[in-house]
Design a protein that fits this description.
With 137 residues, the protein is an all-alpha fold. The protein contains five helices and two strands. A hairpin with a 5-residue loop joins strand 1 and strand 2. Helix 2 runs antiparallel to helix 3 and helix 4 packs antiparallel against helix 5.
């Protein structure tokens, strides 16, 4: 049996810790900004600025990398995805149109895809470049 399957408690703890860190990161970077910017032509943008989203992503790279490098794959992928999904749902659920569910689903799918790719890169390592295969002697 693999080492990962023999130790479910560290996997669960890492999942809960990553979910909590992701939720706290959402609150710290995005949760406080709730107003939209109105431009002179009447269009609106926001409520988030690009630097806020970039800050959240860069902040979460550290715990995701840490968890993935220790083979806590469930924590790195599922914990981060759950935390950001709950944060987005809580933050956007006051939308009367109901379209916030589409945004929350996009956050969930995007986070799942990116954390899976990052975890795979950390655990598997870099793939060899095309044409750099070792020649047989």
């Amino acid at each position: 049996m693999s080492e990962v399957l023999r130790k479910p408690v560290p996997q669960l703890v890492s999942m809960l810790v990553l979910a909590g860190l992701s939720l706290a990161g959402w609150a710290a970077w995005l949760g406080w900004d709730q107003h939209r910017d109105v431009h002179p032509d009447g269009s609106t943008t926001g409520p988030y600025e690009a630097w806020q989203v970039i800050g959240l992503v860069l902040t979460l790279l550290v715990p995701v990398y840490w968890a993935a490098s220790r083979w806590y794959v469930a924590g790195a992928v599922l914990g981060t995805t759950a935390g950001l999904t709950v944060g987005a749902y809580y933050d956007w659920s006051d939308d009367a149109s109901g379209l916030f569910v589409i945004g929350v689903a996009m956050i969930m799918m995007g986070t799942l895809a990116v954390t899976t790719a990052l975890t795979a890169m950390v655990t598997v390592g870099p793939l060899p470049a095309i044409g750099s295969a070792k020649r047989a002697a």
